[in-house]
Input
Amino acid sequence: MSKKTRSLSPPAIAVLSALEYIVAVAVVVAAIGALTDAARRVDASPLTVDTERVTLLSPWDAELSGDIALGPTTLEEKSGEFDYHFGRKLLTERKRRDVRTWRSGGAMSWRVRIPAAGSYQLESLYAAPTPDSGGRYKLTVEGDGDTYRSETLDVVTTEPDVAAAIRPIGAPLEFTKADTATIQLVAADVPGATLMRLQQIALCPAGTTSAPKVVGGEE
Output
């Protein structure tokens, strides 16, 4: 403690200490964010798809462009509770961010490595409560010289009390060979506030699913 600090009254010292603590916490939280964002940018290698089990792709792992943004995490609003375990929880929660803002032109894409020819069903875990969500989006799946899918799809809206629903994205994908592919979703027409709140998509080998079909409500 400096001589100047010692000359202050006890209440003033308490206020100053609290301000210093808040600033220190803010710096640490910002540093965590910078490090995790940097790690996200560096780790750009394709994700290898499991040929027997469901492979999950999160918005955090996607490359984002245009009018699209991930939602904040609840822990970021509780910086006053920061400690080592809080920091670890914050890192974990950041990787579970869902899409909150997704308007026309907003795009997200994943690079995946398909180890062998096979059939996969794309499924999405999302919420699209009426009347603020819904619209159309374009799905493109392109490999090394091959286009496996290019179609525009409608978002099936959900009831307000449904936290998340799992539904198929188009027909099954038929990969004719081992390949490295890019899966891209682009919002094409968004009449409301957002296309949907996407939590993850899944690549499901034939005969598997990322069920349960609905989480947190009635379908």
User: Anything to note?
Assistant: Confidence is low (pLDDT under 50) at residues 25-32, 34-42, 213-219. The first helix runs from residue 3 to 6. The first strand starts at residue 47 and ends at 48.
